[in-house]
Design goal:
346 residues; mainly alpha; 75% helix
Length: 346
Amino acid sequence: MHFLEPLIGTQIGLLVAFAATAALVVLAGIRLSVYGDALGDRTGLGSGLIGLVFLAGVTSLPEVVVSLTSVLQATTPQQGADLATGNMLGSNVFNLLILAFMALIFPRKFKPREMDNPHTDSAVYGLIMLGIFSIAFLTARHAKLEVPLIGCSWPVLGLPIAYFFMLKREHKQHQAANEPHLPEETELTKQSAARFYGVLSVLCGLIILGGVGLSMLGSRMALPPDQGGFGLEASLIGTLFLAISTSLPELVISFASIRLGFLEMAVGNVLGSNMFNLLIIFIADSALRGHAMLRQASSNHWTSVALILALTLISGVLLRASTRLSSTLTAALMVGLYVAAMLVFV
């Protein structure tokens, strides 16, 4: 991003660059939602599973890149550990709020009772992976439990193993619950494989690059004003702004999906992203090569863990809401809890 230094070296230039990158992510995300639904038809996986696995992976890759960069370029192992862990946990907190925003902004389209797969199992899987992370975080300071060659701790190795088996179980459940059917004939399903997957790859690339760019620009906004930033790092506004910048791909994909009537894909994207994000700990811990990342991380992250736990449990209630009133009240509770936590702990 050095070649853009003359542009983003000022506050106005930084805002213009952020707005332009955000617009790129929005446009690519809207189109990717359409292609994601078509991909579900072409593969027979359905939009729910596509959101849970494919779109979740695409929208989470920017967090992976940013976390790895933070770990490898940090001044100290402790700084890298806090940046990577905080990035993952903060993103997961905001991602859960996306479910609440969908219920509040699109009440007529947010009808979880009408979904073939309400993704409540996915919420449980997310809690299981959060539990594995908590065990790894809790034991990291007390013992050197490192996997030879890989370099991560043994409890952290449980994250990719659990993720693999959960996706495998989700796929089996999808196959058992859905009879094979011919894909709906649309312009995209009739496209040649080369053209369809070529455009899909370009859209994914734009989302990933845009997400990385937003994260970096958001970090620059936290710099002091004399360095071209806004000095927001210690304020509630700064925390919220950075959280939005790192989670904008998930937000755009989910909003575009629900507007197009693909609620299962939108919910799957959010919950799948939270599962995928926890793999960041395994990737970053392995990259540190024996420095035991979670041993370096601050205990302040337990606040985020508790908030994720509470929001995930409430989201389970939200995904089983039978009336618009109950979903609205539950969503409002999630937003209120988040705002209260920010006011108390930020």
